[in-house]
Amino acid sequence: MDILKIDGLNKRYGEQAALTDVDLVVPKGGVFGLLGPNGAGKTTLIRIINQIIDGDSGSVFLKGEPLSPKHIKNIGYLPEERGLYKRMKVGDQLIYFARLKGLNGHDARTKVAGWLKKLDIQAWSEKKIEDLSKGMAQKVQFIATVIHDPEILILDEPFSGFDPVNAEVIKNEMLELKEKGTTVMLSTHRMESVDLLCDHIAMINKSRKVLDGPLAQIKDQSRSNIYKVKLQGTDIALPAKCHHPKEEYGVTSFEVTLENGTPNDLLREVMGLGEVVSFEERIPTIEEIFIQKVKEHAQ
Ligand SMILES: Nc1ncnc2c1ncn2[C@@H]1O[C@H](COP(=O)(O)OP(=O)(O)OP(=O)(O)O)[C@@H](O)[C@H]1O
Asked: Which of 77, 96, 194, 252 is the most exposed place for a label (fewest CB within 10 A)?
């Protein structure tokens, strides 16, 4: 089932289009990447889903129902601009947010204690936010976002501001929630950071969706049929169809396009040139696919 469906959404800020005729379907479960460069319209879309702002026209449905204030409790939202009360203690603040999302006092305290323990930050409970580093405060904000077990978790640039170790911690928590059935929607302009994380993606450029679908399918459709080959030894006579040859540390590497036949045929051909060290298809990155799509749209 689809957890979120967006039909013909438009939003302008004066002359500036932020969203133009955007249709989107977010399937239940999995990680959905909302990708696009700065200013593409991602935050605008997320703010509309969170009912912080309204679209000019178009519709948003959550679990088949037109989006309404009652759906706020179904959503956990980690905004790019983090919003915590600087003077309040971590523990009190998390309990406050949990109560706001409808948990009773007992459940709120139990949940907060559980998350502080899980992320190994019980010692921060009595600290004020203003005494935490940016990364520490972001961990607290992450807990505030997931404390009410939302069905859909929306994360805007979730890894910015974290060091690599803490980014990994948040990533693993996110994947654990996904395993439990939470739908995760994450927005980023750093496409390389989510290449291996997303099950579905939508790419937005200059307010318009340029591509969406299951990532595996998109990658499959974008296959280049170019293979990267490494052969043991140097001074190997390569046929003209081998591109970008390079010799390094006694190994010759090059790229070759599969024009007809199968990868097996190509491998056999390459084996005739020398001792094969490696042979792999050059899979385009999300960023390369995005650039390709933007070019196609421009034409
Ligand atoms: N409050 C606002 N007033 C005027 N223009 C706005 C406002 N918010 C966004 N915009 C414009 O709308 C467009 C989309 O902005 P949006 O913040 O949604 O992009 P984004 O994809 O989230 O970018 P980023 O990756 O930089 O966060 C941009 O051209 C932006 O300048």
From this structure: 96
